[in-house]
Amino acid sequence: MITDPKSSGSEPSKVTRRAFLGSALVIGGGIYIFSMRKTHTDEMQSAEASTSTPQEVTIVEFSDSGERQGTVKVPKVSKSEAEWRKQLTPNAFDITRHDDTEMAFTGKYWNEHDKGLYRCVCCGTALFDSSTKFESGTGWPSFYQPIAEENVSTSSDRSFGMQRNAVSCHRCDAHLGHVFDDGPKPTGQRYCMNSASLNFIKHS
Fold it and tell me: Per the domain annotation, does 17 fall within a domain?
């Protein structure tokens, strides 16, 4: 039996094209609706974030001379990446906002011996007093305790295959360094800090 090759292949071809075009329209419409919903959701979340009440944290305030001013509740400092970049040096930004670490013996405070107060470079919260600073031989400024436990936070850090306790500023979450259990008395702790995370205020 002889069949016409044109008639035998035309109808399936038309069906295939129609099915393909129909599927493409459905998929395209779905993607468009999904993207519109996502954009709307993102806009609502952004609006809610901008109108929500800032989270408060409890810290202890100190004067630049190191005198305790009292325990206060203050708004938690939260800024965008662009705002932090504008405020900080590239090195301080990488360390405080992305948990980087400065090379040993390169920071400006590792060999600092003057009396004074060390504040957070990001938000100004008092962190350490020079009276607790000691020579650890590590090449990083080291303290055996913070100026107030309320002003710092610790968290588990398992990066680089190690188990460490990271230290951050309680008010703005700036990464400061790590704390180890090999410090001197009376605490036995070594708060190994990055100079770039700190701002030293010399006692007058």
Answer: no
Q: pLDDT of 155-172, one tens digit each? A: 998 887 888 999 999 999
Distances (CA, A) of 49 to 35, 52, 58, 78, 82: 21, 5, 21, 11, 17
- Per the annotation, the verdict on 192 as an active-site residue is yes
Measured on CA atoms in the order 145, 148, 152, 153, is the torsion positive or negative?
A: positive
Residue 150's alpha-carbon distances to 88, 104, 189, in angstroms, are 24, 28, 17
CATH number for the domain spanning 181: value is 2.170.150.20
Taken in order 157, 162, 165, 171, the sign of the CA dihedral is negative
pTM here is 0.74
Between CA 171 and CA 175, with CA 172 as vertex, the angle to 5 degrees is 115
Count of structural domains, the chain: 1
Of 120, 169, 172, 192, which residue is the catalytic one? Answer: 192
Task: Provide the 8-state DSSP code for 144.
Answer: S
